[in-house]
Amino acid sequence: MAQAIPRITWNTKSSSSSSISHLFPINIKRSQQLINGSFSPNSRILCEAASLEGAKTAPAQIKKPENRYEMVNLTTWLLQQEQAGNIDAELAIVLSSISLACKQIASLLQRSSIVNLTGAQGTVNTQVVLHCLRSSGRTGIIASEEEDVPVAVEETYSGNYIVVFDPIDGSANIDIALTTGSIFGIYGPNQQCLVDYDDDDSTIDQAREKCIVSVCQPGNNLVAAGYCLYSSSVVYTISVGDGVYAFTLDPAYGEFVLTHEDIKIPKAGRIYSFNEGNYDLWNEKLQNYIDHLRKPGPNGKPYSGRYIGCLVGEIHRMLLYGGIYGNPKNKNSKNGNLRLLYECAPMSYIVEQAGGKATDGIQRILEIMPEQIHQRTPIFIGSPEEIEKLEKYLA
């Protein structure tokens, strides 16, 4: 007789956990208008996070599919991770709510030319993610690349997890239907952002500072991170600190299905991803490294250059085939172009969980302590042997 699966219900009530109050409340009415305006009434997607209810059990080993016909969807995998003690129920709900946001954004992007969603109108994508995270009832602070300051979820809906995200990576690719993605990182529960409605302005300003400090954490503190790739397939890749797993959206059922289990990046790879249009702006050491990659190797062939202008696409390819990606500093941008909190730290977490390395040329990306929420940093990320080779050139 088949083992009973814990019942799944839809939770619209607030979390019983410690809450974080209205500091920068989300404009829910505006959010719903933006989202609903992009969908017809018959195709509206309601974004209520799944509440995963089940009896508490002792940590158990995660069961792998017994044969190639047995599929594991994201919900089942999250339940397995919870039963194994890798995550708690609240983190499972946050990850589930992010997957719902990915589905909505994927739908919007597929119809972008029809609904006039361009790279310059990415506010809709930000509101989609904010709405899904808020309705999960498990997030207290949300920080986005598109927002000036972190958003504190109002008390009725708030939880304790801190989520940072870039709703659309490679937004310039939207208009020409090329690869784009979303990136997110999740930090553990934190109560530094509490504020009372009756507080005076100075107290609220202090709470604002506490909120920003709560978000400014090194990548080593991440409890989960991932990305969603929007291309010929929609791929949701996540890590909760125990390997990297990728789920592909099955359009027939609307479910994310496990397709890449415990991904391990190749130790070396002969693909490099740099924007070589900036070659003349780089320092001599980096130029020498790039010159080395262009020369024929022992097999008589040089490295292959690949650059699509989307960090998610570059990292996804690298996880599967190996190689190195770089966004270095240059004469016009002393800290590179990518943001530490929303892009570099989550991606470095993923790559290191897969056995790769990530550095700014001096230290590990995950060890950098952010001083500002929109701080930028150079980054070199990829196969361990390729990063080690680069470091010798930069030394």
From TrEMBL:
GO MF, one example: fructose 1,6-bisphosphate 1-phosphatase activity
GO biological process, one term: fructose 6-phosphate metabolic process
Record Pfam families: FBPase (PF00316), FBPase_C (PF18913)
Cellular component aspect of the GO annotation: cytosol
Residue span(s) of domain Fructose-1-6-bisphosphatase class 1 C-terminal: 265-394
Enzyme class: hydrolase
Cofactor(s) for this UniProt protein: Mg(2+)
Family: Belongs to the FBPase class 1 family.
Full protein name: fructose-bisphosphatase
